[in-house]
Amino acid sequence: MFLKPQPAKAAAAPKHTIDPQTQPWVEKYRPKTIDDISAQEHTVEVLRKTLVSANLPHMLFYGPPGTGKTSTILALSRQLFGPEHFRTRVLELNASDERGISIVREKIKTFARQTPRATSGSEYPCPPYKIIILDEADSMTQDAQAALRRIMETYARITRFCLVCNYVTRIIEPLASRCSKFRFQPLDIASTRFRLEHIASSENVPISPEAIAALIATSEGDLRRSITYLQSAARLSASATSPAPITPREIQEIAGVVPDVVVSSFAATLGVDMDHGMDMDLDDGPASKGSKGFDHVRGKVQEVMKDGYSAAQLLSQLHDLIMLHPTLTSRQKSRCALILAEVDKSLSDGGDEELQLLELGLRIHKALK
Amino acid sequence: MSLWVDQYRPRTLDDLHYHPELSARLRSLAASGDFPHMLFYGPSGAGKKTRIACTLRELFGPGVEKLKIDQRVFMTPSKRKLDVNIVQSNFHIEITPSDVGIYDRVVIQEILKEIAQTQQVDLSAKQRFKVVIINEADSLSRDAQAALRRTMEKYMSNMRVILCANSTSKLIAPIKSRCLLIRVAAPSPEEMGVALARVAKKEKFDLPDEAATQIVSDAAGNLRKAILILEALKMQSPDLTSNISVAKPDWETYCIKVADLILQEQSAQRVMLVRGKLYELLSHCIPPTTILKTIASHLVDRVDESLKADIMHWAAFYEVRMCTGSKKIFHLEAWVVKVMSLYKHFFYGIDMPDDFEI
Ligand SMILES: Nc1ncnc2c1ncn2[C@@H]1O[C@H](COP(=O)(O)OP(=O)(O)O)[C@@H](O)[C@H]1O
Ligand SMILES: [Mg+2]
Fold first, then answer.
1. With an 8 Å Cβ cutoff, is B289 touching chain A?
2. In the 3-class helix/strand/coil scheme, how is A213-228 assigned residue by residue?
3. A350: alpha, beta or left, given left = phi > 0 and alpha = psi -120 to 50?
């Protein structure tokens, strides 16, 4: 069981009892020791040394989601202090905790200045300092980060910090420069497959190599995502009236991926040649591309929106389709790339999805004419 | 007396008649004892909320329909008090971020932690967890979304989150990857027809095919809208045969007028006139994006093929400006001026440099 009640109110923290049956697999299969962490060899190797020397610098873990950052620091802390002292020695705060400047001044400082009580007879190294984990630190305000500086310096002897974030650039320089930095890589395909197969077999989930490949493809190196998708797929197939094998298409639906036929048909409407050797029955033959270009594209956009597909997702799949297209010229592709980039930006600025998709469609249609 | 949309809203998963595979899926998930966090997404009026309510009922039984409204006070980091009305039952709680404005993070954090840290006291409850429904999840601030991430992982034993959104585009990846995504597509015209027929049957009247077809095409996949129109029409002409015309809402008629004004004359005075009308619409709380899209869609139906793409291009352009800028009216107006100049140039045959050629 893996729970981290906050030390400050350790006594009051409710004792959760989680039924392992309903426990999310990301928690159930969270690495227990740093040796269970896959694919981050360099980091693990350095940290293993700190277990022996029991000395730890301030640290900054950064890298994309689901690569083991939180798992690593939690595993390391537990290996240092053991379950008994974990509560009094480790403070974990993340973006779901209030971490404004006042909390930094009060809660974090209070914890940081406490001298750790000596421990004896523990089988764990129990070094004479505490650890403050600031997970998702990139969501802390600059002010709050600035307030941390002094605390980090003043109490360095008895308190070590571990900042965890996705974007190292969002951590102010004076903090970042006080830390040893560890970069976490997106998980490679082999490690991801290995973990997924391990979990599937522990849970007795029959899964085909194709389905595993779909999990890997849709999760882009984010192991948390692929494990969650695997669990969802297993749930759905187990709870179906007639247990069905997990199909790649099902995984795509769980992941919110737009079906290939929808993307192809959208692309065909924009004038991308989709007939090259593919035996697909698309409702948009070249015959329907006439002078009615506008209404045609608009109709298609409305159809996609009605089906509820996400514009951002469609855009990203369309991007792949166009860039890997066998017959479009590189000039055409670069025109499309420019349009795709502009629309992507507009979407992330909060632009209306239907308008943006229409913009995308009309401009690509024009660029390919 | 409640509206038909509410009165005849399906209450159980069995009552839902379209997307049967989705209902089956939700039913078995509710029964599996292994219920995940979920994200329902799809266009407005496709039936997301109804489906969520039916799923809750499947999970907890009819008790979940006993709602109470609590007035709660939250404290912002700057120590300001914030009054929020919260709808809840013994088994779930509902939050709509737009009710709390920029403080959504505070409210969500508080509510989730509170729920997460209390066990279900009702021993007869069918589930050990409570459900937190977050409506309009696409309008959650980034901050609030970040705050959700770890909470969703950490408190899985006492709590499940159900997010409801029009699209997944505005949700950050870590949230999406913690949820089971459920796409609710709009019902097809046939499915809408069936839904309307059901309402008619319950109200004991015959719905002529012609009227049904007309309503379905007007509602464009939005079932809520279709049923609202049906009820309004039935009031207007009880037999639903004599030359029915689906009345448009006032604001829409007003937008059409604005489109006409733009096409009739392109001058500085006309811009001022249109501006007044836009102000009027905004002051009636019609969302600026809706105004822009409605006017644009009426414009493109009336102009030459060669102008359509340009009008839409600039609509998309200024709509983003509205999001990132601060004064909506500026950008609406700028778009109107742009459209007028395009139109004028088109008629006087002057070649204009094509601004979005690449
Ligand atoms: N390198 C890894 N080795 C093993 N498991 C991992 C690794 N990275 C992620 N995971 C799995 O993904 C889940 C999320 O990992 P986490 O450490 O919380 O990611 P991060 O903090 O980097 O976003 C964990 O519960 C674990 O099951
Ligand atoms: Mg993390």
1. yes
2. HHHHHHHCCCHHHHHH
3. left
Q: How confident is the model at residue B86 (pLDDT cuts 50, 70, 90)?
A: confident
Facing residues of B134 across strands? B95, B163
Q: How much is the average pLDDT of B335-346?
A: 93
List residues bridging with B38 in a β-sheet: B162, B180
Beta bridge partners of A59: A162, A180
Q: What is the pLDDT of residue A253?
A: 87
Q: Are residues B22 and B140 part of one domain? A: yes
Identify whether the C-beta of residue A166 lies closer than 8 Å to the C-beta of residue A64. Answer: yes
Residue among A314, A297, A270 at smallest CA distance from A358: A297
Residues B220-253: tens digit of each pLDDT: 899 999 999 898 888 877 777 656 677 778 899 9
**What's the whole-model pTM score?**
0.81
Q: What is the DSSP letter of A185?
A: P
Q: In whole angstroms, what is the distance from residue A278 CA to residue A281 CA?
A: 9
User: What are the strands, taking DSSP E only, across chain A?
Assistant: 59-62, 90-93, 130-134, 159-165, 180-183
Residues 24-83 of B with CB under 8 A from A: 24-25, 28-29, 31-36, 41-43, 46, 77
CATH superfamily of A25-183: P-loop containing nucleotide triphosphate hydrolases (3.40.50.300)
Mean pLDDT, residues B295-320: 95
List all residues 6 or more positions away from A116 whose beta carbon is below 8 Å from its beta carbon.
A88, A89, A128, A129, A130, A158
Ligand 1: list residues with CB < 6 Å.
A 26, 29-31, 37-40, 65-71, 184, 195, 223-224, 227
Alpha-carbon distance A44 to A50, whole Å?
10
CATH number of A260-273+291-368: 1.20.272.10
On the CB side of B33, CA atoms within 13 Å amount to: 5
